[in-house]
Amino acid sequence: MRYRRLAATIVVVLLLGLVGSVAGPGWNPQPLGHTIVPQTPDTTIGSDAVTPPVGTFEVAHEVVDVQVDDDVTIRATIASPVGAGGDRPGMLFMHGAGTATHENFADITTDLASAGVVTMVPDKRADTYTTRDRDYVGMAEDYLDSFEVLQGWPGVDPGRVGVYGESEGAMSAPVAAATEEEVAFVVLVSAPVVPIREQGAFAADSYLREVGVPERVLRAIPRLVGGQFPGGGFEYFDFDVSPYQQRMTQPVLMVYGTGDYSMPVVQGAEQLLADLEEAGNDQYTLRYYEGANHGIRIDGELAGNFTDDVARWTSGLPETATAPPRVAGDEPVQVFRADPVDNPRWYATGDMIVIAFLVGVGLLVLAPVLWAAGQVPRLRGRAPSTLVPPLGRYAAGLGLSTLAVWVFYLAYIVGVADLALNYRTNDLLVNGGWIVVQLGGVLAAGMLVVTVTAGWRQHRAQRGSAPMGRMGWATLGCVVAGSVILLVNAAYWGVYPAVL
Predict the structure, then answer these.
(1) C-alpha dihedral (377, 382, 387, 388), degrees to nearest 10
(2) Contact indicator for 72, 125 with CB cutoff of 8 Å
(3) Nearest alpha carbon to residue 479 among 406, 407, 398
(4) Domain boundary assignment for the chain
(5) Whole-angstrom Cα distance, residue 292 to residue 312?
(6) What is the share, in percent, of the chain residues with pLDDT greater than 70?
(7) In what helix (H) or strand (E) does residue 257 lie, and over which residues does it extend?
(8) d(CA 497, CA 500)
(9) Cβ-based neighbours of 299, under 8 Å, separated by 6 or more
(10) Which overall architecture, per CATH, does domain 58-329 show?
């Protein structure tokens, strides 16, 4: 009997692994196969233009109010060079993802202002920005309200005001440049360029590979990122910024750090250059900073020469717009392409993800309620309608082991995500933790076999009588059905070994 149970457990594990393999979609990112070769490792901006370096001027900061709607006012910090004289270039900053205020970019804007560039950092408008809903075109329109304020600021040349978009802000900056001809230049820092859905899948793959997770874990990426999300929304994931970049005629400075695993640092630059060519725009400058992360920082500090280069490029326009070297810095490495992500099938996308999980958990929660209800006849001196030994122990073990699989799996994902986002590795957690998750899955599959087998024996032994009672059978049915649903879900997310 033991060997039969062992064989049945192996079969169940293999079947669950097969479900995880064929349920789709698969994950097979394509190698990029090439890179961009900088002309020189020196990122210094060329041309004969004479520009003040960082640190030339004292800096004054002032917080102002900007009205972006009839009943919405935000705050903005303007940093100005003290005693610079003449009309200076201005730069409006556009924030990356998440909530952000006028206090962001303080070190960058201070450096730029000390080199003679007047900078403005507005609050990100919070009433129209959520995790679920974002409108990059609308955000660009709001930023342009601040842009007008900066154009009219004392000491600013209104014809020399441009925009600086970092990360997600680089999705709105091209929109502003394409729709407002008075935008004089564009600085794109750590720009996704490709739609957020593609960039997100690329980033997850890059981070997880860097951490060293098993290949099985990577298959969850398109299943999470590729489809609709529970409750709807997230349409901005598919926003394509290329049509706006194809309308940009301004000088463009594009910046990446070669230690940024979240962005397609080669593909993004190539797409931008192709879009600018479509616009007939040859005014581009591309810089890669060695070892710098997404914020162009190394160990928390801004990469050397970053703000010097941005300040010189800005102050030196139009001479610096096409000054050699056009591409300079560290050679970027992008192993895989950021491509469109396959969609999960109907049963594993959007609300169905949550519904299936809640149904499984709900059945496991209902089981002890039914068991308790089956004990009520005891109060009247009657025989209870409940699980008989050893089914009670088996059912409890099955329910608890199934829940344990999900606890282990979710804890593993959280731990790996923490490693990835903090650029750390831990082989014990990554590999040992995954072994624990899979062993939990095998144990739950074994308990499923034991419980179903015992239930079948009990059914045959009763021969029409009902010593266990309806409540007992209902309890057992809830445990088995809930466990099957949750274990199939776990298989979908890669818990069981791949068969194909």
Answers:
(1) 160
(2) yes
(3) 398
(4) 2-24+346-492, 58-329
(5) 20
(6) 98
(7) strand 252-257
(8) 9
(9) none
(10) 3-Layer(aba) Sandwich (3.40)
